[in-house]
Amino acid sequence: MNASEISRIQTYLQGKFGVPNLEVRARDNKDDSAEVYLGDEFIAVIFRDDEDGDVSYDFNMAILEIDLPEKSNG
After folding, report:
1. How far apart are CA 14 and CA 16, in angstroms?
2. In sequence order, what DSSP letters do the residues of 17-45 get, joined into one string?
3. pLDDT in tens, 13-46
4. Nearest to residue 57, comparing CAs of 20, 17, 15, 10?
5. Coil, strand, or helix at residue 60?
6. Number of C-alpha atoms within 13 angstroms, CB side, residue 31?
């Protein structure tokens, strides 16, 4: 992904989620994806898919069970 794509995706995600400190960063030695950070915390990877000229982006976020809040009794 080039710098222009990364900037456009970052602007889109900041607006969509209402999170101005969300940052999309290029990945070392990878041109098909970028990393997403919330502040200093890595939260996701975005993969670029270019199939037959139709470009789309896949936001992939893993959520660990240990990071979830405790179950509520209700």
Report:
1. 6
2. HT-TTEEEEEPTT-SSEEEEEETTEEEEE
3. 999 999 999 999 999 999 999 999 999 999 999 9
4. 10
5. strand
6. 2
Cβ distance 25 to 35 under 8 Å?
yes
At residue 54, the 3 state secondary structure works out as: strand
Give the list of residues 6+ apart from residue 3 with CB closer than 8 angstroms, or none: 26
How many helices (H) and strands (E) the chain has is answered by 1, 4
pTM above 0.70, yes or no: yes
CA atoms lying within 13 Å on the CB side of residue 11: 6
